[in-house]
Amino acid sequence: MKSRLFWIFAIIYSSLHHIGSGSTSTTLKRPRAGDPFDTFPKNFWQEFSSPFTDTPEDEELEVTETTTHEPFPFFADPYTTINISTQLSSNVYLHCRVNDLQGKTVSWMRRKGDDLTLITFGQHTYSSDSRYSLEFEEPNDWKLLIQFANERDEGPYECQVSSHPPLVLLVYLTIIVPHVEILDERGSATPEKYYKAGSTIELQCVISKIPHPSSYITWRHGVRLLNYDTSRGGISVKTDMLPGRALSRLYIANANRQDTGNYTCMLGNEITETVVVHVLNGEEPAAMQHANGTRFMSSPVTMVVFFIIFAIMKPFQR
Predict the structure, then answer these.
(1) Taking the model in full, what pTM does it have?
(2) pLDDT in tens, 184-227
(3) To the nearest whole percent, how much of the chain has pLDDT over 70?
(4) What pLDDT, in 10s, does the model give residues 269-309?
């Protein structure tokens, strides 16, 4: 910058010098020896005509290249494998949440070994099983609904997005089959139970392995529902839903012969257990069993067997 100012002052000085000497000729003359212009660098006028800014010769303008990519679909859940458990005969949803779908299609497949069976494509269901259907929930959940799940529904399912490469979410469904048992008032399990007329019938239904109780427990005498029966009177049902299990008690007061029959405890429509109840008039259940034993011992075949044994053993008694 200082050097440029020096040359400017030199030009002004030279111009004033020529004017002062009275020279009016327009003929261009070669500068005299020692003229300040002789010492100017060859590229002076090029530099002089440029702006008075110090710009490094090697400085280059940086050009940043930017590229915009189309958003790629991705699953909202952080896992690529999800395990779901449901109770036998219940309805279950398999969730598939997809963000930035960008016009791609979501499908549900059922995998059996190396075979894949198409269930849904977009919002259309292609399965011949009417229990399967697709329900879309805003903003991004493509839910596969399975109604009345049974043991054949257990296994892996795949939610696929038609991107390149395709996205796959694996959902493994486990069907839990509850265990049902009917006990008497002493907590003993027996397929048959005897009660004296006029006594109270008390049965307990214990159901274990219930992940999510979705239906209540019902009692039936034959085909007659007892939970809300008011025609007979004296019937009471008390049910407790506990973590992972359920306990239901059936009480029938003043039992009579009409109360004899099959009693069934039900959770839903497929989870059942049955016990046979006998109501006796004028004799204890033990007496009936003893009488059955007496009749068995007094049968003709039994008498013949004992006679043969007695005949064989008699010589050895002498």
Answers:
(1) 0.58
(2) 988 998 889 999 999 999 999 999 988 766 667 899 999 999 99
(3) 65
(4) 778 999 999 999 876 655 444 434 444 444 555 555 555 66
Mean pLDDT of the chain: 80
Query: For residue 242, what are its two tokens?
Result: 């506990």
Give a three-class secondary structure readout of the chain.
CHHHHHHHHHHHHHHHHHHHCCCCCCCCCCCCCCCHHHHCCCCHHHHHHCCCCCCCCCCCCCCCCCCCCCCCCEECCCCCEEEEEEECCCCEEECCEEECCCCCCEEEEEEECCEEEEEEECCEECCCCCCEEEEEECCCEEEEEECCCCHHHCEEEEEEECCCCCEEEEEEEEEECCEEEEECCCCCECCEEEEECCCCEEEEEEEECCCCCCCCEEEEECCEECCCCCCCCCEEEEEEEECCEEEEEEEECCCCHHHCEEEEEEECCCEEEEEEEEEECCCCHHHHHHHHHHHHHCCHHHHHHHHHHHHHHHHHHC
State the distance between the two ends of the chain, measured CA to CA, in whole angstroms. Answer: 152
Between CA 227 and CA 231 the distance in angstroms is: 12
pLDDT in tens, 16-26: 555 555 544 44
